[in-house]
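Contributing new records

If you add data, match the layout below exactly. Sequence lines come first and carry their own label; structure lines follow with theirs. Keep one chain per record. Anything else will be rejected by the validation script.
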Amino acid sequence: PLFALPLAVWAGERISYRAVIGVIMALAGIWLLFSRL
């Protein structure tokens, strides 16, 4: 899902704010996981 977003943007498709927020939340979660290691 994370890599599908830039591809959708490159393809010229409309992306909802919910999808963008979902990616940001996923990145934040991954960052928190790795920052605690």
